C-alpha cells in the first residue's frame, strides 16, 4: 500500500499498553497521565487491525508500549501475531526488566527480533534516568537474548549530560553480536524540554574510541538507522537521527497507539480513531486504514518544534 507521495507503507508499530515499570524522564516521568483500561484495545481488536493491515500490504509489525511485557498475555499475543496469515515479521521493543525468563518461549515461537532500551551503562546514571536500580537485570537480559538466537538490538537515547555513556554502551557491540543504536531526543512530550546530543557529536565521540568506524550499506531492520562497522566490533553501531537528518522521504511506517489511534506521523497529533471504527463499524476498518495511510504527511517538523502538534507522552503513543 502506498501513500499520496508514493511511499510503500509496509510496517506498523503496534502499542499494546501505555503502562511501564520504569519512569524514564524523557518518556514517562512521574505524574504522566494513564488511560483507563477500558480505553485500551483488546487483543482481539489488535489482531483485527493487524489482519486488516496485512490485507493492505502492511506485513511487518513491532509490538511496543509503554512496556509491552507488563500487559498480561503479551507473550501469547505475540504468538498469535506470528501465526496470522501473511505476517512476515513480528518484533518486540522492551526495557528488558521482564525479558530474561520469557526468552525461551519467545525463541520457540520464532520471534523475529528484540529491541532493548538501555540509556546508560553506569548503574547510577541508569537509575537517575529511569528511576530504577535494576540495570543488572537489563544487562543479563541483553546477553540472554543474544544467546537465545533472537536478533537483538539496543536503543539508547542521546540525552544531554550523558555523553560519557556513549562509548560504554557501544562497547556492548564489541563483546556481543548486537547492534547498538543511538537515538536523537525528539521534541515530543517530556523530550521537548531536552536539547539532547546530536548524532554527529555522538559519532565524533565513538570515532575517538574506534577510529576505523565507517558507514555500511546493510539492511538490518525496518527502520531508518544508519549503521557503522569497525574491526573491533562484533555488532554494528547505528544512528537514528530524525531531528538532524530527516529520513521522511523513505518512511515506511504507521503507528497504532494502545487506545486505537492510528498515527501516520510521530510528530503530529492528527490521526484516525480505529477504536471507534472497531466498536461501531468494523467492516469499515480496511477503508479507514487505507484513508489514513493515503493521508500520511510528507514530512515531520522536528526542526520547527513549535509546529509539533503531538501533546502526549512518548509512552502514550508507542514511541
Give the strand line-up of the largest sheet.
7-8-9-6-5-4-3-2-1-10-11-12
Number of strands: 12
What does the overall shape look like? globular
Q: Give me the Rg, rounded.
A: 19 Å
Give start-end ranges of low-pLDDT stretches: none
Task: Tell me about this structure.
- The chain is of the alpha/beta class.
- The protein has helices at residues 43-55, 74-83, 103-109, 123-130, 135-148, 166-170, 172-175, 199-209, 274-280, 285-294, 314-317, and strands at 11-15, 60-64, 89-94, 113-117, 152-158, 179-184, 214-216, 226-229, 237-240, 253-256, 261-263, 272-273.
- A 12-stranded mixed beta sheet has the order 7-8-9-6-5-4-3-2-1-10-11-12.
- The protein is globular and about 55 Å long.
- It starts with 10 loop residues before the first strand and ends with a helix.
Write a brief structural summary.
With 319 residues, this protein is an alpha/beta fold. It is built from 11 helices and 12 strands.
Features:
319 residues; alpha/beta; twelve-stranded mixed β-sheet; 11 helices; 17% strand; globular
Question: Secondary-structure map with pairings?
Answer:
Blueprint (H helix, E strand, L loop, with lengths): L10 E5 L27 H13 L4 E5 L9 H10 L5 E6 L8 H7 L3 E5 L5 H8 L4 H14 L3 E7 L7 H5 L1 H4 L3 E6 L14 H11 L4 E3 L9 E4 L7 E4 L12 E4 L4 E3 L8 E2 H7 L4 H10 L19 H4 L2
Parallel strand pairs: 1-2, 1-10, 2-3, 3-4, 4-5, 5-6, 6-9
Antiparallel strand pairs: 7-8, 8-9, 10-11, 11-12
Amino acid at each position: 500500500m502506498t501513500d499520496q507521495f508514493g511511499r510503500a507503507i509496509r510496517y506498523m508499530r503496534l502499542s499494546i499498553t501505555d503502562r511501564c515499570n520504569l519512569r524514564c524522564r524523557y518518556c514517562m516521568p512521574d505524574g504522566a497521565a494513564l488511560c483507563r483500561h477500558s480505553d485500551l484495545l483488546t487483543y482481539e481488536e489488535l489482531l483485527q487491525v493487524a489482519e486488516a493491515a496485512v490485507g493492505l500490504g502492511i506485513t511487518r509489525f513491532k509490538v511496543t508500549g509503554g512496556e509491552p511485557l507488563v500487559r498480561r498475555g503479551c507473550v501469547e499475543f505475540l504468538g498469535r501475531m506470528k501465526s496470522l496469515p501473511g505476517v512476515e515479521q513480528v518484533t518486540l521493543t522492551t526495557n528488558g526488566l521482564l525479558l530474561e525468563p520469557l526468552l525461551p518461549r519467545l525463541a520457540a515461537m520464532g520471534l523475529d527480533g528484540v529491541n532493548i532500551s538501555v540509556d546508560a551503562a553506569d548503574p547510577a546514571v541508569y537509575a537517575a534516568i529511569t528511576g530504577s536500580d535494576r540495570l543488572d537485570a537489563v544487562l543479563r537480559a541483553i546477553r540472554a537474548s543474544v544467546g537465545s538466537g533472537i536478533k537483538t538490538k539496543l536503543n539508547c537515547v542521546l540525552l544531554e549530560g550523558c555523553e560519557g555513556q556513549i562509548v560504554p554502551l557501544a562497547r556492548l557491540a564489541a563483546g556481543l553480536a548486537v547492534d547498538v543504536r543511538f537515538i536523537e531526543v525528539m521534541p515530543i512530550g517530556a523530550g521537548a524540554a531536552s536539547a539532547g546530543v546530536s548524532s554527529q557529536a555522538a559519532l565524533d565521540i565513538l570515532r575517538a574510541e574506534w577510529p576505523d568506524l565507517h558507514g555500511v550499506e546493510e539492511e538490518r531492520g525496518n527502520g531508518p538507522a544508519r549503521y557503522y562497522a569497525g574491526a573491533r566490533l562484533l555488532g554494528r553501531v547505528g544512528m537514528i537521527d530524525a531531528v538532524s537528518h530527516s529520513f521522511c522521504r523513505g518512511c515506511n511506517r504507521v503507528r497504532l497507539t494502545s487506545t486505537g489511534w492510528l498515527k501516520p506521523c510521530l510528530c503530529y497529533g492528527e490521526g484516525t480513531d480505529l477504536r471507534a471504527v472497531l466498536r461501531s463499524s468494523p467492516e469499515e476498518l480496511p477503508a479507514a486504514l487505507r484513508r489514513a495511510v493515503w493521508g500520511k504527511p510528507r514530512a515531520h517538523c522536528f526542526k520547527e518544534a513549535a509546529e509539533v502538534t503531538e501533546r502526549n507522552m512518548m509512552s502514550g503513543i508507542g514511541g
